[in-house]
Amino acid sequence: MAAAAGRRAGLGWRAMSTSDHAEASPAPAAPASFAxxxxxxxxxxxxxxxxxxxxxxxxxxxxxxRVLWESPDGRQVRGIWQITPGVVTDVxxxxxxxxxxxRATIEVEGGGTLEVGPGSACVLREGDRTxxxxxxxxxxxxxxxx
Length: 146
Description:
The chain is mostly beta strands. It has a single domain, classed as Jelly Rolls (Sandwich), CATH 2.60.120.10. It has one helix and eleven strands; from the N terminus they run H-E-E-E-E-E-E-E-E-E-E-E. The protein is globular. It comes from Streptomyces subrutilus. It holds the Pfam family Cupin_3. This is (S)-ureidoglycine aminohydrolase cupin domain-containing protein.
């Protein structure tokens, strides 16, 4: 995890002030208050993330993302995550996310079915086994606790 955090340091995304989106500043290196207008982060600034082929049920989904902040101990991560259409499975961490673009159906094994789209806030529990059917490329802002 530390090596991954080091790779992410110093990359080109820019934090946006909530009061003035015209002025941008570099990403904070330490926990600090900041805002990012998630829909405006270009796809080119998202990094490819490996998707285990065993997780792919159908289609050819591609996952990208950007870590915006990670706690020094690696137990909390905040960032942007995106997936193209397809069907994938996952075992979740403790996560809160807000969908900013796209649509998906998330089936939680032994639980309900979540229909998510722009503006949806979702909480997933650590250990939830999920199947994601991504209808439109989905982008979310997230906070994960390990």
